Fold this protein.
Amino acid sequence: MRVGVDVGGTFTDLVVVGPRRLRVVKVLSTPEAPERGVWRAYGAARLKEAPSALIHGSTIATNALLERKGARAVLVVTAGFEDLLELRRQDRAALYDLALHHPPPLVPRERVVGAAERVGPSGPVVPLTDEAVRAAIAAVVRLEPEAVGVSLLFAFRHPEHEHRLSAALRAALPGVPVVASHELVPRHREYERTSTVAAEAFLRPRVGRYVASFAAEAAARGVGAPRVLASNGGALSGELAATRAVWLALSGPVGGIQGAALVGAASGCTDLLTLDMGGTSADAGVVLGGEATLAAHGAIAGVPVALPHIAIETVSAGGGSVGWLDSGGALRVGPESAGAAPGPACYGLGGTRPTVTDAYVALGWIADGAVLGGSITVSRARSLAVVGDLARQARLGVAECALGMVRIAETAMARALRRVSVERGLDPRTLTLVAFGGAGPLAGCALAELLGVRRVLFPPHAGALCALGMAAAADLAEHTVSVLLTAGEFASRAAALAAPLVARVRGDLPGAAIRFVAECRYAGQGYELDVPCVEGAWERLARDFHEAHERAFGYRDLAGAVEVIALRGIGRVGSGTARLAWRRPARAGRGRDRAASGRARRRRIRLPDREANAAVYEWEALEPERELASPSLIAGRSATALISPGWAARVNGIGAIVVEPGGA
């Protein structure tokens, strides 16, 4: 039995996965102390035995970056490069907006210390003397750090100076975390490497305290070895998570993409667009060949991070996103969210501003009196009141205002889906859209129409799919070595480069099965493509890169020199959830269930072009191969779906709803 817990902006979802069952629990999140929501959900599950694994997605690192609430960190760099974090790459936050600025660095200039040393690509240029070490340590101690980062030039290739400095700092500052770039992120590109080290130092004390507290509470409840989901989709032990804080920056959203990959595989679809619409935001991703796509570089909360992570685009278009009018009188939605407290007005918890969820309720897409998350009863009167206030300000009818809010949110989500597909060389028309989260299935058909997608999947337990992805996550460990060789040179030295990677990965994760990914580019290009490579067949790498480049960008240059920039070793220990009990088997004696699945109620709803009587089905009672009329609403315990006119739907063998263009 495995348990996954997703801490969302509005609800905390818990999924219990056993050999013959799959159970979902939802409780309101506790933003002031997210771990309290985790243990409330765990208590509500009333488990009779301790699970073999408890994996949760934590927002602790993400929130610390967003709110800039981390440790008092000090950064040690090569003398003369103290302004590196301020200079960035001398690009502007927005090309044509002179008033927009990058967020300030996590470590301000006054807490950056220059060490008198210099290493070049061939080795030391200015030696690191004992006096220089003592001077750097004295400067760091005077700044009273809670954590220290060390990032020296060319330490990814020649780490001797950095190793010596970090060892001296650890001896001089016992109990203070010291992060060395050659240990955390041995990559070229000094700015991204240094930014990642600064982020790790900024986050590690807070994340370490959280992980230790969570592990202690788990032990008190009889739960052994809890894990935290990392940004690459793998589960990390508490010990590793405490020293890989920056790996947790996308901990929550990646669980949904992992869950979507499971649903797609069980439904016979391996190339997917994924859209997770939660309470605060919507997250878009891509799954190809059954695996979530990774990005080697990116920025999280404006902080460049040079660590592989599942590629995700996030927009402020969740169910709690607030509708408002800008100074020109135009209707806007987000980025502010009502969250869990006070929440949408329809929840009756004190919310007084219209949200996307209120718009859905006002349109009749979510029923008056519906119970969300097992505890929140929806009030249509409250939604109509707050949407009506905004409508009067905008000089619109209530239905027009609600539809406008919904369409604005859908347009933002469509932009995110285009960024993860079209802008990366993928045609969304060749992919299946998996829409999930509490409100994702309400937007699925509209998003498919905007993107030209021909098939949409609404998963069973759609509102808790992130937690399901976490419960099914494998344990992963990953390490990188900088290469900077041509493909031919790499092939002759690959075995020697791979051996220490294998040792480091298995040191973190004994018994792991290891695969390799090379980061390659044509000579002269600025960024790389990930190319899987097979141990012992390194000479195939150039050919595989040409093919990958053509898939991504539409052309290949067979005469161009191929460079290998880095080699990653990824270790995996499987989760043991190959067979999931997606739905409870139908029981012939339960006539009520059979009747509920066969007979639909009717509800008057507002569609973009007209009012209509929609069929209303109970999601959990639908039987496999059931065909659903359109327009229709499918009301579930964790999510609600809308089948728009012009689409046909049926229930597949795992309880997912497959939606394709078709008859009425």
About this structure: Residues 584-597 have pLDDT under 50 and may be disordered.
